[in-house]
Design a protein that fits this description.
The structure holds two protein chains of two kinds. By secondary structure, chain A is mainly alpha-helical. Classes of the chains: A mainly alpha, B mainly alpha.
Amino acid sequence: MAAVAAVAVSVALVDVFPRSILVFMAFQLALLYVYVARIPAWLRTGLLAVALLVLMPLIGLRNGYYLEVATQVGIFAALALGLNIVVGLAGLLDLGYVAFFAVGAYSWAIVGSPHANLIFGGGFPLAPGWFYVFLFIGLAVAAITGVLLGLPVLRLRGDYLAIVTLGFGEVIRVLANNLDKPINLTNGPKGITPIGRPPLPFGIPYSEGFYFLVLLIVVVVILVNRRLENSHIGRAWEAMREDEVAAQAMGVPLVRAKLLAFACGASFAGVMGVVFSAKQIFINPESFTFLESIGVLAMVILGGMGSIPGAVVGATVVTVLNLQVLKGFSLWLNELKNAGVTVLGYSLASLPTQLEPAKYERMVFGIILVLMMIFRPQGIFPARRRQRELAHTDEGP
Amino acid sequence: MDYELLIGIFPQVLLDGILLGFMYALIALGYTMVYGVLEFINFAHSEIFIFGAFVGVEILLSLQSAGWLARLPWVGVLILVILAGMLASGLLAVTVERVAYRPLRAAPRLIPLISAIGVSFFLQDVIRLVESIWRNAFNLVYPTMDVMNIRFELTSTLDVSVRSLVVIVAALLMLWSLHVLVNRTKIGTAIRAVAEDQAAASLMGINVNRIISLTFLIGGAMGGAAGVLFGIQYSLINPYTGFIPGLKAFTAAVLGGIGNIPGAMLGGLVLGLLEAFAASYMGLLTGGAFGAEYKDIFAFSVLILILIFRPKGLLGEVVRGRA
């Protein structure tokens, strides 16, 4: 019953202190506690469902920013789960994952905004209802891109593959940046706006609507992931990750398995790309940099490669660190500066203006990657098989 | 099409390509030497390179503010700055190896690579943090020395500045001394032995760990020198500047055959020339539809093509084969 109490107390706290970051993090911790606590399965599912379906939107009414954070967490959780298939299950290090996200985002952005009139003449933007169709088109386009990328690079060794996917991610970004001529396809660095938003039932406001949409997609992605993990192809992926030669000898079709991994991973990113572009109304190539790819990688690594709950927890921790902790620290520092506080005789007002803690995402990602690799390569929530593999290698031959 | 223009800019483009090529060659050495010894892509090398550039700019800026920059002999200042950049970057590379790579030497292949990516990101922001506190700016400009801007007009379309000559001479000197070090000295023999077979080398009484550190020191020093030269040539640097040249230098190393030291030099030059020509001629040849903004894509395409069709690189890989 401690689980119920934890959720109830944290929600009550959020209700009392709707602006406190710490309290919102307590709510997230309560959810995590519900997940790991030794309670009956029906209670766990029920509590999580109530918390995510009812309590979170209510919190959003008290403080809309938290709902935004929750939506972002959901988007990144889906991305992390997609990358988890490629990196965690199949063992192919993809450093350009955000490219698929970009492909999905642009596929809806171009036809969901008046921008397409420049290319095709007239008749755009498409009716907002098309958004739901484009969830599937974005999925398909991203999956095809994944296969196209996979085909030439599959024969490469793991570390070369990583660099080539990095290059591919940069290629997509440079293309998005420069394809405003000869044909204006992406509108270059200026980006595309306004991107159409989907019609929502029952007159739900957009912030809640996107929250539920993202939540629904994440749940579907988790279910798909769980089925995949224990399926024929999931086992093939893991066999391939452990030992390619042995897997091939056991009859795993390497090329098909790798292509499928790329396509599956990419498709989740494609769907979320479509949602992202509609949610933001505006997209430009700045949202699809190498930094984002590494951010998603850091989520997967933090949670544990190959682990589904790990990917979700990793996405939550990293997103909250970026959106709330770093930004909160920045704001707090600014407040102290403006108040003219001195620490040990040093006036904070004389701190350099270029010092903005919110800008140090890279440092956060870097620290996560290095520390996790050195001290806990299996991640916070290790996948069982992966844990055994790493434990085995540490002993050495 | 304007053929006269196409031919007219040729010598200048050639010179730019050679300059860029030497830069890539110096950086590529760091990647290739480490790969030769550990079979591992030192992803953080691009930051080790730019760290050299920052150490250089700090020294030049403090000399400038002390009013010594104009008074000291410029060759002496250059040598001092390059040596300081080499030392700093070399030591940084050794430290990074100690802290972030050595504990992972027995782990599966991708683990140290991920750690290296982390180090790369971490170093970028550390440089930014330090410069933000120290100077309240992290986009820094190399102070110019007047000598550097003297230009010799060779033909009506080609002029060479002292700056470019300095970069070429310094790069050639570095490459030559590395060649001597690796091929003519006992230390170089030890490095090659470790690259060939670590176990056998250690049985021959070579301290493998020390040689690996030394490889990082030398590779890092080359990167640091390249960083200072980069700053002198292109003047504007920020903590994130190193990333793309680093990636291209890695491409150059692969192009020449990774693990192969002459290969890295050749690969650097070839890539530099290809890129300079692509940047200048693509726009002219396609009527402006695809211009210099695609030069980064061009380098990556070279990487992908070379990996697909000739993964050994131009001069062949020195590393032994593996699954």
